């Protein structure tokens, strides 16, 4: 079945370009568009797509508030934010709101399409460079009371090791290699962590790893 996608961007030309790109992918289908955050929330509520590609800066309700409302809902839609990274604060806001990943608008076409598939499959985008830096800076900026090291209750020592590696941006295959386990076992550990820690996706596991002190922000 095709991954159902909604495009949310206030620039019709951007939406048109994305629609053309996605039309060439046999497993992806654009089912709706929105030019404002409020429209995005309404379209997602009506169509229940798998993924919404969400711009941050839009008139009226911005993409951050729209992401918050969509992520707080009971539907299956996951939010993939498109940004030029002209303001890290906007990306931090989207992260807090529940976005499952981030894209740069000038990324290669194949990378954009692959990112949609990754998010639709229930994973999240944890890029070793940009995204991990943003998450680290976001967590480091929290008040010291929140940033104080606290134990992660209810997980095993092996799961703690896996959580630490997730916080460092490792993929499942990299986790398997470093811990000398199979990729399938690594995936099982990640799945159990998501359940035990009530995390929506891998992005939230990274935040937990930083907030509990398992991973220290650079600098």
UniProtKB/TrEMBL annotation:
CDD domains: LuxR_C_like, REC_NarL-like. Residues 148-213 form the HTH luxR-type domain. InterPro entries: CheY-like_superfamily, NreC/VraR/RcsB-like_REC, Sig_transdc_resp-reg_C-effctor, Sig_transdc_resp-reg_receiver, Tscrpt_reg_LuxR_C, WalR-like. The modification 4-aspartylphosphate is found at residue 55. Pfam families: GerE, Response_reg. It comes from the Bacteria. Coiled coil: none annotated. This is DNA-binding NarL/FixJ family response regulator. It comes from Plantactinospora soyae. The lineage of its organism: Bacteria, Bacillati, Actinomycetota, Actinomycetes, Micromonosporales.
